Amino acid sequence: KARGRVLLHYREAALAGIVTQLFWGGIRIMIYEAFYRSSATAQPLTYDQTVTYLWLIQAMLLLLPWHVDPLAAAAIRDGSVAYELVRPTDLYWFWFSRGLAQRVLPVLMRAAPIFVIAMPFFGLQPPVSLGAAVAWSVSVACAALLACAITMLATISLFWSVAGDGVSRLLATAASLLSGSVVPLPFYPDWAQPILDWLPFRGLMDIPFRLYVGDLPTRDWLPLLTHQLAWTAALVLLGRWLLSRGLRRLVVQGG
Environment class of residue 108 by beta-carbon count within 10 Å: exposed (0-12), middle (13-18) or buried (19+)? Predict the structure, then answer.
């Protein structure tokens, strides 16, 4: 809640982000429109589904694990993490909840205006059914948890590195390419589909967005959400184990 109140002060940044996402969304739609017009073969998504998928990417781009928690990174570098260790809180969940606020609040501030503008004017379609809307909403919540679990791994890696930029950029690149935010995953070649289906990154964007457009039937929502939550649980366990190892080797100058 405290982190959320701080983020709500950055309204100008949210406005700039909305304009930026609308601009890039328009460019990407023009690219795909040219692709559909020049292609004579059937595509895995219809043009309307693709446009909606692209707008959902622009609205929820900040869900992706782009970077480590800057406050945690600064605390590890300057040693003030020692103060967090004496607080009567679990350090992992303290950082996790702060990371959740850093994603949910900016996404809400950007996504709502983009929906209001893109739905009547730029081809963003509503969910195909009420069931799809419910499944999409729950899946987006699961995606936020999954994104925080992935980000926590990058943050914890700072115990073993000076800056952590390498791990952060590798994770951001992998998440962008393998979640569907660069190219929707149905457009990847057939041989890659089983790999993409198994990896956790599709749970960040592809699963909720394809539920929204109806490419994934709502009757399959339970296995899809299980995929997201299972990867979240596995990454949380891995993160907690790595954090315990990092804290055992942590040396704070002066004590």
Answer: middle
Q: Using one digit for the tens of pLDDT, what is the confidence trace for 3-59?
A: 666 666 666 666 777 788 888 888 889 998 898 888 878 888 889 999 999 999 988
Mean pLDDT of 174-178: 89
42/49 Cα distance (integer angstroms) = 13
As a residue count, the chain comes to 255
The DSSP result for 51-76, as a single string, is HHHHHHHHHTGGGS--S--HHHHHHH
Residue reference for tokens 């964007």: 205
In the structure encoding, which two tokens stand for residue 171, read together?
A: 């994770």
Q: What angle do CA 203, 209, 214 make, to 5 degrees?
A: 120
Nearest one of 211, 231, 206, 212 to 221, comparing CA atoms: 211
Question: Which one, of 191, 193, 166, lies nearest residue 180 by Cα?
Answer: 193
Which tokens belong to 59? 């609205």
Cα separation, 183 vs 201, whole angstroms:
13
Q: CA nearest 175: which of 60, 100, 57, 66?
A: 66
Residue with tokens 């073993």: 160
How many CA within 13 A on the CB side of residue 88? 0
pTM: 0.88
The answer to whether 85 and 91 have CB atoms below 8 angstroms apart is yes
CA distance 168 to 37: 38
